[in-house]
Amino acid sequence: MSKVSIVSCSNYELELVKHSVRTCVDNLGGIKKFVHPGQKVLLKINLLAGTPPEKAVTTHPAVVSALAELVREAGAHPLVADSPGPVPYTTGGLKRVYRAAGFLEPEKQGVFELNWDISAAGLSYNSGKIIKRFEVTKPVLDADVVIAVPKLKTHMFTTFTGATKILFGVIPGFSKAGYHAKLQTGEQFAEMLLDIIGAVQPALFIMDGILALEGDGPGLHGQPRSVGVVLGASDPVAMDAAACKIIGINPLEVPMLRAAADRGWWDGKSDSLEIVGEPLENVVVEGFKRPSHVARDARGLDRLPWFKRIWSPVAKQALTPRPVPDGNRCTGCATCSKVCPQNAVTIFKGKAVVRDRACIRCYCCHEMCPEAAVDLKYGLTGKVLYRLGLLGGT
Q1: pLDDT in tens, 350-381
Q2: How many domains would you assign to the chain?
């Protein structure tokens, strides 16, 4: 596996972050190894929703600013972009999210340029295992180099989200919901994410793990947790495997990393990681909260054709937590309805209502709700099995 650079960074004071990011990239050979003069460099951030940086839901602007400075030093032009999940892919939608996440001020100061191009275009990938053509945001195709800047977070659907999932954000706006509808198992979804990586081929990944998100991430149901690291790698699988070790998650619990092992992208063994900078054991954090329960289709039994054919609909209802809007917190904004790939959420008398039979358990509503008003709850059978420890979770 390629190298993973790990550098300690205790807070977001800009000069400290600049030093840490520079050291992280230098450990991999320096920015000029990845970026050349005159190139357009897309800095693909994690901009899940319009939340302030201290919520640890989005990539922190200080990390992006530090990386943009290195790109400019290499004689290239940095463009910061993402397609947020819960809002239409419009200039107005982008502006609201950029402002909330703290990116408008650095742009105003000339630190980097923000993307305002809301067009999309096709990107073919004939080697794709699940998807061979994607509709992606136009800046991806216009860039000479893509650098992905993920956030270290837990995830209710994939256990962990980092470098191997961040490129889902190149799918424009609500188009993401279509992939959730089509790819309903974790294994299928993971394969699609790896196909995006193969199609886009980022040159470098820099992970913001200074303030991470633990618990029921990747949105506002998670809790910020100081981890104090910046990671760098050209290999997203190696980066995520290292990040998982830091927070105490077995990398093979993450469907993207399992799928990558099946593809031969790595051997599935964490001891094969080549770490430069801080030794891995020096930055491990204790007691990092995992998701309370992770979405699974009947604990993987959907791989058996007869089981899936007969029992999968029943298992989905009983053995997976269902999204339940809280009437006290719900404002009726309809974000959940807009992002639902199955049209399973409606607004009735000013409150969200989920039709459970139509729900495919993609948890877009839970993830994208700006008020954190969608809880995940088991039915009676699921509650019993969960309390017996038969459905995972902690």
Answers
A1: 999 999 888 877 778 998 899 999 998 877 77
A2: 2
